User: Fold this.
Amino acid sequence: ISLHRVVNSQQFTEQFEIYYQPVVNISSGKIIAAECLLRWHSPELGLVSPTEFIPLAESIGLIMPIDQWVLQSVCKQMKIWLDARISDLTLAVNLSVIEFNQPDFIQKIVKFLKINNLEPQYLEIELTESMIMQDITSAIATINKLQSLGVRIAIDDFGTGYSSLIYLKNLPVNTLKIDRYFIHNVDQDPQKSAITKALIEMAHNLNMQVIAEGVETEAELSFLRQKSCDAMQGFLFSHPLPAAEFEKFLWNKK
Ligand code: G
Ligand code: G
Ligand code: MN
Ligand code: NA
Assistant:
């Protein structure tokens, strides 16, 4: 498969590209973060979605070099943006559970921060409930180490997995991201409204900031504002953008 060729020949930059989706604070309107989302421009297949090639990469043993390339590239990009005073946002990275569970995962994070001379608070790692629950003891240990380094932690796609609230209570997590399933038509659906409202309250009581994902309409946004949701991302504000377009987007919002 051609995915093998790209990874094994280390030609990531020729076919892989990281897109950045801005996350905006709902009350201030300020951009506070960006989620880094990988795209594969395959010469044979065209633009391939990560929902297709990530599971493939996981099954054929290629996910680790891909995720490591993403981590390194994101740290490098962040340092460039900081030095050029283009952005001082948090960059949130998605990882495979395979990479997250590697015994030397923390060492790699330390290495990428060091190589790029990047302070840890600019990096946020997005973990799903299933990634945490797969091996809860080692996940808690890893999360604690990340926190003591100063790297931020978000729980992604919240509400769609099986997480134990007993563990959530004790996890040092900065951010809870409500899955877009709950946000879609949240203003019209009484069940989604009830769940979203409860999740926002729970996260605040646990001292986490809440990001609503997949916000597409003004009505959804005004519901979230009314329920004191901290931040949002979604097509209403911006699609994920290539780095150069993301820079322009930041510039225009200034
Ligand atoms: O970007 P959407 O545009 O299609 O992303 C789909 C899914 O792919 C999301 O669940 C996201 O977490 C995952 N994903 C995006 N970028 C990466 C990445 O760099 N590494 C891993 N492991 N998953 C990613
Ligand atoms: O699983 P994770 O939350 O990491 O995946 C983020 C996914 O959500 C990406 O595929 C991204 O392109 C997609 N996304 C971002 N904003 C929106 C939106 O407003 N609507 C929809 N349908 N998808 C979105
Ligand atoms: Mn995510
Ligand atoms: Na999500």
Q: What stands out?
A: The longest helix spans residues 63-83. The pocket of guanosine-5'-monophosphate (ligand 2) is lined by residues 21, 37, 94, 156-157, 180, 213-216, 233-235, 240 (CB under 6 Å). The two ends are 44 Å apart (CA to CA). Residues 114 and 149 are 12 Å apart (CA to CA).
